[in-house]
Amino acid sequence: MSKIRILTIGRHPEILQTVVRLVNDNPDWACTGVNSDDEAIATFTTQPFDLVLLGGGIEKQSEEKLCNVFKAHNPAIVIVQHYGGGSGLLTAEIYEGLRGNKID
Amino acid sequence: MAQTILHKADTRGHANHGWLNSYHSFSFASYYNPDRMHFGALRVLNDDTVDAGKGFGTHPHDNMEIISIPLEGDLEHKDSMNNVAVIKNGDIQVMSAGTGIYHSEYNKDREHRVKFLQIWVFPNKKNVEPRYDQITLHAEDRHNKLQQILSPNAGGEGVWIHQDAWFHLGKFDKGVNADYQLKQKGNGVYVFVLNGDVKINDQQLHTRDGYGIWDTDSFSITAETDAEFLLMEVPMNLD
Known about the structure:
Chain A is α/β, with parallel strands linked by helices. In chain A, 44% of the residues lie in helices and 19% in strands. Chain A contains four helices and four strands. Helix content of chain B is 0%, strand content 54%. Chain B is built from no helices and 22 strands.
């Protein structure tokens, strides 16, 4: 079975690193982490992803821009707001995203 | 008409890590239940017991209002804002994680365990400046009455958070009754019984049961035995 490919975007480098590590602890998930909008767009448009996690510190304007670019490139992409940092919420947020539910 | 949801104590998620024994009212860590994701803005209600000399190492949070209420023992808190504090039974601690914060929580006592509630509420504003606060509550202020311990107002009674939420504690003798008036339209209340038997309107609750009630302006609380409980009023709609 191929892994679920997850792109995580977060401004806080250490929190991003923690989130990527926690996501990658699940053997069925493969996570790539990026800090900047440019890096996020470049990565998303050159590699396939199933889900995007929007982490902390992303300004509203950036969030809208990124969502528009991602949806235009892949209308089926699942975009999930991640709350709480490197936390206990990741697993449930990702499962909910993959089920098509949104909790925020 | 009021809508309600009952979470019996024994239906909560449970994880025993040896040093940490945790019951989850909502999906958390490896406990995932799509029907138990949150109650409005209330996302996490963990009922934790930490062994003597153990604790949570340094870990990050962002964009979450995190409230800790020790029920037994003391917990040492250290964070990336240089706060070092001990929270004891009777205190309430609040942390707005905002743009990002690191912290650790340890039970420094070598002999006694710590029991505490860890509560996470979605903020109404993202990427705020991280902040930390703790206060000591007076137990007599909740004896047979409701004691406000949290609100959205910096000048209000108790601690404050970035959300239109109000928390109250009550320690009622058997037979005592009170009405709770919701503070804001569109909010609901999640009742968590710390110990004893309580009736919310006609619904009987026992120790560690959870009960959500919304689409109502008020409800009544009756202690069927001597009882302690926590009321968490939060917005039900997050958009």
